[in-house]
Structures are given as structure tokens and as C-alpha cells.
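Quick start: what a row looks like.
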Amino acid sequence: LFQLEKGQKVGIAVIFTNNSRPTAATVASCREEEKKISEDDLRDIFGKPGKVNIYTEEINYVGERHIEYDINSFTSCSGAIVFLLDKGQPESVISERRWQIHAGAHPFLNSRNMGFKLHGNIPNLVTE
């Protein structure tokens, strides 16, 4: 039986428009109004509008109904699919396809995001 574990690598894929691009306000943590960051740094970290931008990190915590991870994200990423990466994973992940939904920033820990686990039979959407 597959189990999500601390240390497994996950990612989210985000496409944003020029109007919904990351800003100093939308990348700020829950205790900041704005982050001191340049437009160039925002583009280097979060990518470009109209492109698929993939952000990756490891799982920090596995709860009964959610996982926590530290992915650079910003306001409006909520709802993105969180997926297990297919490279550099522990043996427990090989050939597994598991999906979660990105909920957003952790309400108390600035260095964490949360994703809700999906339960049940999820079809393999990836073709070999």
C-alpha cells in the first residue's frame, strides 16, 4: 500500500497572465504585507506569464487529510494540482501516481504550504 512520506518530492504547475503575475504583495508570507523583491527576482523565481511554470520541493509533513511542503507560491496558486515528481524519489514512489490539491499558504508557518489529499481511485492520466 502506497503512503505519502516526508521527503518525497512534489511539484505544482502554474500558468498565470500578466494581470495575475506574482507581485511583492502576492508572494508575501502570512505575516508580511509585501516582500522586498525586485521584478527581475520575481521573474527568475516564478517564471513568465503565459508559460507553464513548475515549482518543486519536498513534503515536510503528512497529515491524515493533508500534506505540507515549502514551495514558492503566490496568491492565486490555490487549486493547482500537486503531483509527485518522477525523478530523484525514494523507492516508495516508483511508478506511483498520486495527486493532491494545493490549498495555499500554511496559516501559521511562513515556510510551508498545504495541499489536500485526494482519496479513492484516481486514473492514470499519463501515457507511457
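That is the whole record. The two ends are 23 Å apart (CA to CA). The first strand starts at residue 9 and ends at 14.
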